[in-house]
Design goal:
CATH topology of the largest domain: Arc Repressor Mutant, subunit A
Strand order of the largest sheet: 4-3-2-1-5
Distance between the termini: 18 Å
Strand content: 15-25%
Number of helices: 3
Number of strands: 7
Helix content: 25-40%
Oligomer: single chain
Radius of gyration: 15 Å
CATH class of the largest domain: Mainly Alpha
Structural class: alpha+beta
CATH architecture of the largest domain: Orthogonal Bundle
Largest sheet: 5 strands, antiparallel
Number of domains: 2
Shape: globular
C-alpha cells in the first residue's frame, strides 16, 4: 500500500498516486481529497522507499508504521507532535523502535513520522505493507 503514497517536497501532507501523465503525475491529497498535477521538477518520494536509521540494519518505514499502529491501536497518536518536547518524542519513539539511532534520527524526523501516521490512519489506511508491482514497466 505504501508504494502509491507519496511525500512531495514543499507541499504539506501525503498524496496518493492516481495516474501518470506525460512528464507529470496526478496525485490526490489524503487530507482533503483534492487532485493536482506534480511535475518532474518536484521532489517526490514514495513512502515505500523510506527507511529509518537503527543501531543495526536500517528499518523500512513500513515496519515503523506497523509498530506504531500496534502501539497506538491503529488510532491517531494521543499527543500533538508539534507541541511535544524532544524528550517526549524520543521516549515515545523508543517504544516504537527500541534500537533507533539517536545520533541520526532527529526529533523533526519523529514529528514527521507521527504526522504521516496520523494522516494515513485518518484517511483509513492501516495496511502499511509495501506491495510489489505485479507488472514490470
Amino acid at each position: 500500500m505504501l508504494k502509491d503514497i507519496l511525500a512531495i517536497t514543499g507541499k504539506p501532507g501525503l498524496y496518493k498516486l492516481v495516474n501518470r501523465g506525460t512528464n507529470m503525475l496526478i496525485v490526490e491529497s489524503l487530507i482533503d481529497g483534492k487532485r493536482q498535477p506534480t511535475y518532474a521538477r518536484d521532489k517526490i518520494v514514495s513512502l515505500g522507499e523510506i527507511s529509518m536509521f537503527t543501531t543495526g540494519e536500517d528499518v523500512t518505514l513500513s515496519e515503523v508504521l506497523t509498530n506504531t499502529g500496534k502501539k497506538e491501536g491503529l488510532k491517531p497518536v494521543g499527543f500533538d507532535p508539534k507541541k511535544a518536547d524532544n524528550e517526549t518524542l524520543k521516549s515515545w519513539f523508543g517504544q516504537v523502535l527500541p534500537d533507533w539511532d539517536e545520533d541520526r534520527v532527529y526529533p523533526s524526523d519523529i514529528r514527521k513520522l507521527i504526522q504521516w501516521y496520523n494522516i494515513l490512519v485518518n484517511a483509513g489506511i492501516t495496511d502499511f505493507t509495501i506491495e510489489e508491482a505485479a507488472t514490470e514497466e
